[in-house]
# Entry
Amino acid sequence: MAGGSSTVGMDPDVALRLFEEGATLVLLGVPQGTELGIDCKSWQVGPRFRGVKMIPPGLHFLNYSSVNSPSCGREIGPKTGLFLSLKPREILVANWDPKEEDLDFSASKNEEELSRIRATLQELDPYLGPYPYEVMRKWVSLTDRLSEEVANNLQPLSGRICAYSEVIPEIEFRHTKDRAEQPRNDTACQSMREGLNRLPRMKHREGTELRFSVVPKKTYPPGATPAEITRCSLDLSYALETLLEKNYQVQPLNVLGELQFAFVCFLIGNVYEGFEHWKRLLALLCRSEDSIRMRKDLYLGLIAVLYHQLGEIPPDFFVDIVSQNNFLTSTLQDFFQFVNGPGVDGTLRKRAEKFKAHLTKKFCWDFDADTDDCAPVVVELPDGVTVD
# Structure
């Protein structure tokens, strides 16, 4: 992406509106060859690149990966991303920090620098690439439930979403004497578990971890009887309602924004932790029978969110990753079973049937296969409770 004012394929009225109302990202000093993207489109930065113009106001995901110089062999570094909420005609300025291999947005807080950029914007225009309008519809479909507030609450405090977690030892031994005093075992490890136990325990560097909602490990209320524990292990509504009350009491449908945030982190940001959280949150939503009866709007929204998300992943992807232990098919099979139960809204039931038919046709998944009803259900009992 070398910059320029090409808007090939863009509706002239839309182009004019974006030109007048769109935001501008001025990104100075980004090395040639850097992989840089916004939303669902990425490029290799050319020598003329100075930023992106005509960006629709709203929430966007800027991402970039540093690249070695050609003399060292072209190796792409891990991806870094951040969500930006841009206002109409806003100008955001960042300078590339070669030491950190990151964008420094401190210039955007300098009114003098912003005024200077605004005064020379016309001269910069030939070096600004237009926002990739062809991906706008896709981006909106993937983030229509994600608000600026939810994105800000979920982003790391550092403001950067990194493909590889930044971790440090839980206990730092800064001095040779401290390390020497630690017990050593020079014998060969007898198992993988033993080897892992000998490694230092690591933790996220403060401020770099994603701040996802905690999916409750205990799915039943305090003091629950064995019968209640079994019921709450089959119907996860108690755990879901607990999560909603703690994180989204005012706007329960914002949990769909968190589902979209996790998916974007995985799909575009290459953050595996986002994929794992997406799976946990989806399983919780799909296996909450009572909540499906109570929260029609939430589950109508869930179907729409999943429709667009699953449309962005090649069918063979699920065979290798998502379908471990039949995760997605078994999770959705439970959902379709619950949505056909008594007391479920008719509109929701019909929408679920259409969604089921769509997935069956697209992926050839069989949601009507008999499940192993005789398989034992493993539940966690409270301390002191035994079953004879």
